[in-house]
Fold this sequence. Notes:
alpha+beta, 4-stranded antiparallel β-sheet, 3 helices, 24% strand
Amino acid sequence: MTKVRVISGACGFVTGIVARKEGAKEVGVAVTSECEMVEKMAPEVAVLPAMAVFVRHPDNPVYRAAGKHLKHVACPVPCGILKALEVEAGLNVPKDASIAFEKE
């Protein structure tokens, strides 16, 4: 099981992502969020092929679902879902990622 927590930024919403292998080629993804848009997207990404992490943005099932439900294209939740998926599928190691604004 792989758990990821996404703190989205200015909106203040926190999203929890839990990924679990379901056989050799699929990963179940449970998404819980304070954001209504993310909650509406969650059922569409509940089971994903492990190889979805290698699908281009326009064709990626996570980004297609995000395109239908999320108003903010810069939302980090879709990336967090794919990060959890790739770790649970054994295609990458669990390593934190971040976006930080630099102040001058």
